[in-house]
Write a structure and sequence with these properties.
Length: about 250
C-alpha cells in the first residue's frame, strides 16, 4: 500500500530543469532497504512506511512524475546505486565521506547511534564493547562499520549482509551485540525476544535527502522541498507512521 497522498507544498516552484535533473528517466527512482524506519518498514497497521519511501513518494507528487521504488538489501547498495546514477534519491546518513560522492540537503533528522545486546549480556554500556572476544555486528559497507572499525581496538567487527541476517546471528548467539542507529535497533528489538537497546550512545547520524552528483539544477528545488516538509509538519507525520525512535532532534538549523 502506498503512503497517504499529501497536498502540494505551498510556494514550491517546480521547473522543467529540476524535474529533468531529479527524474531523468521520466520516473523518480527511490532507493530503500527493509528493516529501517528511516527507509522501509511495515508499520503496526500492516502498511508499508518509512521516511525515505514517503519522502520519495511525496517528491514525485510535487514533481508530477511517477515514482519507482527500488528495494535493496542494505544501505551500502543504495549509496553505490546513487553514485552510478541508477537511483535518483534516498534518505540516509549524510557523512563527510559520502558527501564526496553524492549530494545532500541539510540534515532533516538526527538519530542516536547505539548497541543492541541480549538482556543478560555483560555489556552494559558502549564502553564494555571494546574488549577481547566481543563479536560486534555491523551492516556491511555502512558508515557504522567504517567509524567503529577505526574506533574499536579489541572488538571483533562482524559485517553482516542484511538486517535479517543480523537478527538471525543475534538469536543464534553468533553475535554478542549489533551496532547501528537506534531507529533500526528499536525495530530489531521488537522482533527479537530477550534483547535490549543500551541507553547510552556512541555517536549521532544526521540524515538527509541524497541525490547523485552532477544534478545541480535539482538543488534549489530540493533544498526548499526539504525545508517545507520540515516546517509543514509533514516530516513529523512520516516519522510517526514509520515508528521511528531514537531521535535527538527532528529540526536542525545550520
Amino acid at each position: 500500500m502506498n503512503a497517504p497522498s499529501l497536498p502540494p507544498v505551498a510556494s514550491l516552484a517546480v521547473t522543467d530543469q529540476a524535474r529533468q535533473a531529479l527524474a531523468p528517466t521520466g520516473s523518480l527512482r527511490v532507493g530503500v532497504y527493509p528493516g529501517s524506519p528511516t527507509s522501509l518498514v511495515q508499520n503496526a497497521s500492516g502498511q508499508r512506511a518509512g521516511v525515505a519511501l514517503e519522502l520519495g513518494q511525496f517528491m514525485g507528487q510535487q514533481l508530477g512524475v511517477p515514482v519507482q521504488v527500488v528495494e535493496f538489501v542494505r544501505v551500502a547498495e543504495i549509496i553505490d546505486a546513487i553514485q552510478r546514477g541508477q537511483v535518483d534519491m534516498t534518505f540516509t546518513n549524510a557523512t563527510a565521506a559520502r558527501a564526496k560522492e553524492i549530494d545532500f540537503t541539510s540534515p532533516m533528522v538526527q538519530l542516536e547511534l547505539g548497541v543492541l545486546v541480549p538482556s543478560n549480556s555483560s555489556i552494559r554500556s558502549f564502553a564494555d564493547v571494546d574488549k577481547q572476544g566481543v563479536r560486534l555486528g555491523v551492516s556491511q559497507g555502512s558508515s557504522s562499520q567504517s567509524v567503529l572499525g577505526q574506533r574499536l581496538k579489541q572488538t571483533t567487527l562482524v559485517p553482516v549482509p542484511s538486517l535479517e541476517v543480523a537478527a538471525s546471528k543475534l538469536q543464534s548467539k553468533d553475535l554478542d551485540a549489533f551496532a547501528t542507529n537506534k531507529g533500526i535497533l528499536f525495530e530489531l528489538n521488537e522482533k527479537l525476544s530477550g534483547f535490549q537497546v543500551l541507553q547510552d550512545r556512541w555517536g549521532l547520524e544526521n540524515l538527509a535527502i541524497a541525490i547523485p552528483k552532477g544534478r545541480q539544477d535539482a538543488l534549489p528545488f530540493l533544498n526548499v522541498f526539504a525545508q517545507k516538509v520540515r516546517e509543514s509538519g509533514q516530516l513529523d507525520l512520516m516519522i510517526k507512521r514509520a515508528g521511528l525512535r531514537g531521535m535527538t532532534s527532528q529540526l536542525i538549523t545550520e
